[in-house]
């Protein structure tokens, strides 16, 4: 099983990005029942959870991203998305997704927000 994040890049403040987390090697029933979370690690800071996505419960967002970020998932594609709007310079960092069922992290994708 492997998690791969994609979609990071450079964006101006106020812009948007959509990140994807794709799980390979995970059967549908396991993925559907798995909680996939998104985390951000800014330089010099600890990795912090932003939101967790479960199929049967509502997502709860960290206060700093509430109202700007939206998580969604496509279980048939084994994919979880993070739509990020109104990006701020403080949103910059490496974004990781994590599988609770497998205790597995992706390699991360870099997001840079210019002011």
- Quickly count the helices: 1
Cα gyration radius (Å): 13 Å
How do the SSEs run, as a string of H and E? EEEHEEEEEEEE
Shape annotation? globular
Low-confidence stretches: none
Roughly what percent helix? under 10%
The structural class is mainly beta
- Could you report the average pLDDT, rounded to the nearest whole number? 96
Largest sheet, if any? Answer: 7 strands, mixed
State the separation between the terminal residues, measured CA to CA. Answer: 37 Å
Task: Note the beta-strand portion.
Answer: over 45%
Number of beta strands: 11
Provide an overview of this structure.
By secondary structure, this protein is mainly beta. The chain is built from one helix and eleven strands; from the N terminus they run βββαββββββββ. The strands form two sheets. Strands 2, 4, 5, 6, 9, 10 and 11 form a seven-stranded mixed beta sheet that branches. Strands 1-3-8-7 form a four-stranded antiparallel beta sheet, with no helix packed on it. The longest helix has 6 residues. It is globular, with a radius of gyration of 13 Å. It starts with a strand and ends with a strand. The model has no long low-confidence stretch (mean pLDDT 96).
